[in-house]
Amino acid sequence: MKRRTFIASAAASAIIARRQVRAASKVFRIGWLTAQREASLTPFLTAFREGLAELGYRDGDNLKIEYRYGDDAPSRVGPLAAELTRLPVDLLVVQGAAVPIVFGLKLSTPSVYAFSGDPVVAGLADSLSHPRGSMTGLTFMAAELNSKRLEMLRDILPELKRVAIVANPEHPGSQIERAYSEESAKKLGLALEFYGTGTESQLAGALATMDKDPPQAISLFSDGFAIQYRQWIIDFGLERRAPLISGWQVFAKSGAICTYGPKLSESYRRLAYYVDRVLKGTPTTQLPIERPTKFETVVNVRSAKRLGLTVPDSMLASADELIE
């Protein structure tokens, strides 16, 4: 009897072992989909792949990533999504402006995303705890940080009285960001001038209007449109001695005097967690949307010198990165 039990147990163990080997040898295929250009996302893709590696996924071994870029043409997202689902892929990883487009397609393929806007305002979720459809992921939106950015501008420029806000009004959550900015401006005694820029022509018009009476500083709300046209906006400010502040490191790298906001590389690394959970069978509806948890301050000392401004020692000491 004991021998039969041992044989049955050994057979069961062998079956389980074979199943584990098959599961371990499965090659997952995921699709990376964005409306942006490849070059603008290279550092974040590196962080994302590092996050996957930490969870045991090796690109070219047990994981195959299919990359699709819209090259700043949102109209390409739909066809690219259809192309990926026909391959097929086990999961879509969607980035930026492509997120609401893919959501509108109502695909059966599950998706996880990295989204700069507010998912609830965008209609992607009933709340952060209750994502809709077959999509969930991360948001970079931290609207309350706009208050701190105005305070930082004031610290750099003590005589500050007028600030221009440049923002894409179509970006989900921009009205919340504006509200925080207006509340902070009242406390600081600042006059805000809001310029809604969602197209190149609107941006050109806004800069032409500002040029007639340049502001003392510019607060640029972060989104894909701002990244696409960042150099134009930043150079405009530098040429008129108006320091610019924004939320993401890329703006400081391009000449903004300072950025304070989510550490995007950490957010993309965290995105790998969502990929892992969905590939292991967790429904997207059971994965709450996460807000940023790690933040960074980047100060461009070179831009400050060009503008003849002195960044407070306390800000320099607390910065995560100095660009000199």
TrEMBL record:
CDD domains: PBP1_ABC_unchar_transporter (cd06325). It holds the Pfam family ABC_sub_bind. InterPro entries: ABC_transpt-TYRBP-like (IPR007487). Coiled coil: none annotated. This is ABC transporter substrate-binding protein.
